[in-house]
Amino acid sequence: MQRLVVGAGYGLKDWLAQRITGVVMAVFTLIMFAAALGGAMSSREAWQAFMANGFIRFLSFLFIVSLCYHAWVGVRDIWMDYLNSAALRLFLHVMTLLALVGYAGWAIQIIWRL
Amino acid sequence: MPEMTKQRPKHLALNEIRLPLAGFASILHRISGAGLFLLLPLLIWLLQLSLGSTQGSAETFAAITGNWLVKLILLGLMWAFFHHFCMGIRILLIDIHVGVEKQQAHSSAVAVMVVSLALTAIFGLKLLGAY
Predict the structure, then answer these.
(1) Cβ of A71 and B50 within 8 Å?
(2) This prediction's pTM
(3) For residues B65 and A48, what is the distance between their CA atoms, to the nearest angstrom?
(4) What is the number of structural domains in chain B?
(5) What digits encode the pLDDT tens for the residues B58-74?
């Protein structure tokens, strides 16, 4: 039987994950706006002290994980929508995934080193 | 799976397709997301420099963000972020059946375009050192 290589388990899980990660990032964004208004970005020292706060590090971590998962679903959808070659799609899926996992590790060590 | 291989009518002349504004805002959601993904390494690098403890990282951060080409890229990323953010809220509202009607959906698409451009202008002027 000829199988169609579509590259994803479609459905509720991805749809829901995209929304949950989006909400997490939106809330974090609003917190950062409020922090900026409160002077957390007025100087390099203020910014570093703000980001070193334990609760903010916890939220930054959630933001980074959400961002990478969100980008994975979104970018993978782009490859699936526009690329017909299963080989090229698989290659770009793997590249995207590896890049995002690497970015997550890089960004997390930046905030957790503080 | 015969239904997945059957011929469907296609109209993919992109220069002839006239998207409604909501459709235009929607494709911009995708384009802005792709742009943010592609330039994510730049943003993480700037985060690293902004949080670095050495004098060198402070100087490198100032040098990079002072470059006019980088400023232009950051301005574009600002718009991409604000558009993606506003459009994301619109999508979440439609998910809970707020603004599904045609007229409301059109109005919210207008609002997304206007608000994201206004936010880009406000933060962009700060980036460019206007205030």
Answers:
(1) no
(2) 0.89
(3) 18
(4) 1
(5) 999 999 999 999 999 99
Domain that residue B117 falls in: 68-131
Interface test with chain A among B51, B60, B61, B85, by most A beta carbons within 10 Å: B51
Which alpha helices (DSSP H) does chain A contain, by range?
A: 12-37, 44-52, 54-82, 86-112
Say whether residue B38 is in contact with chain A using an 8 A CB cutoff: no
CA dihedral A95, A98, A102, A107 (to 10 degrees): 80
- CATH number assigned to the domain comprising residue A100: 1.20.1300.10
Here the ipTM equals: 0.90
Cβ pair A22:B88 closer than 8 A:
yes
Query: Which residues does chain B have within 8 Å of residue A29's beta carbon, measured at their own beta carbons?
Result: 85
Cβ of B34 and A75 within 8 Å? yes
Residue B42 contacts A where some CB pair is shorter than 8 Å: no
Residue A88, helix vs strand vs coil: helix
Q: How many CB atoms lie within 10 A of CB A89?
A: 18
- Write the pLDDT tens digit of every residue in B85-122: 999 999 999 999 999 999 999 999 999 999 999 999 99
